[in-house]
Write a structure and sequence with these properties.
Layout: E1 6-11, E2 14-19, H1 30-45, E3 51-55, E4 60-62, H2 67-70, H3 75-80, H4 85-91, E5 97-101, E6 104-106, H5 108-115, E7 118-122, E8 126-128, H6 142-150, H7 152-161, E9 165-166, H8 167-172, E10 178-180, H9 185-197, H10 201-213, H11 219-232, H12 237-247
Parallel strand pairs: 2-3, 3-5, 4-6, 5-7, 6-8, 7-10
Antiparallel strand pairs: 1-2, 8-9
Helix pairs in contact: 1-4, 5-6, 6-7, 10-11
The structure holds 4-(N,N-dimethylamino)cinnamoyl-COA (DAK).
EC number: 4.2.1.17
Pfam family, one: ECH_1
Organism: Acinetobacter rudis CIP 110305
Amino acid sequence: MQWNTIELSINKGVGLITLNRPKALNALNSELINEVNLALDQLEKDHSIGCIVIAGSEKAFAAGADIKEMADLSFPNIYLDDFFHLADRIAMRRKPLIAAVSGYALGGGCELALMCDFIYCADNAKFALPEVTLGVLPGIGGTQRLTLAVGKAKAMEMCLTARQMGAAEAEQSGLVAQVFAKEELLEQTLAAAEKIAEKSLTAVMMIKESINRAFEVSLAEGLRFERRLFHSVFACSDQKEGMQAFVEKRPAKFTQ
Ligand code: DAK
């Protein structure tokens, strides 16, 4: 497949999608969102892939949705075509997604990172939802997911003032899982992704599904859901292998 706006590589059970519109600081246009989804379709179908990383360049993960593409759209264009609805599909993926954020993650770029299951960032990362400066508001989940990640006070402040949040504050606030020197970000992210990819894919996907339930249902319902999934893994050979390997003091070899 010939990609125009991304690069795709696969190694050691990990799919790496690199956003590749350097002249526009990886601004998300329709073609890029479409290509990210096509790559994700391919990686989700392939059961040898256990984890997916989305990265940008050192200067920019993505500087937002493409303002030049959006500027002249009318309400009927945007409403009838459900503009950017494909972006929502990224958040619906079932395999784990890690965002590796270096440099700018602004507007839609920050929202794309927030759609991933966790974010690792470089020490030069800058997160912001500056849509208010353009006379609009975040449109692909920013007001919701940023609030869930960092709480109301910081989400309100960031969305209303467009303030950029740096890497250290992002880690303290729970927006990112870990911060690395920018030279190490990709290597560290791929190492974590490979660790995930070595595990039982079934267990990994169930963990993702179960954690995401915590945002949708009551604690009692969430606990019941987790318990049922826990019971069900005893029908999988990976549970037998994982526990047998522990007993035999050897590394487990998962196959499902
Ligand atoms: N869109 C289009 N082009 C962009 C861009 C963007 N978001 N950001 C940067 N570029 C382009 C610049 O126009 C410039 O192109 P040329 O002029 O060379 O042709 C090139 O990238 C390099 O940018 P700069 O020359 O500006 O580079 P600097 O280092 O000086 O500044 C910067 C970097 C990131 C601070 C600056 O480029 C900047 O402020 N960019 C815009 C950041 C921003 O406002 N982002 C939020 C965009 S709004 C929705 C879906 C999505 C959204 C909303 C609704 N619905 C489905 C309802 C999302 C909205 C947004 O994300």
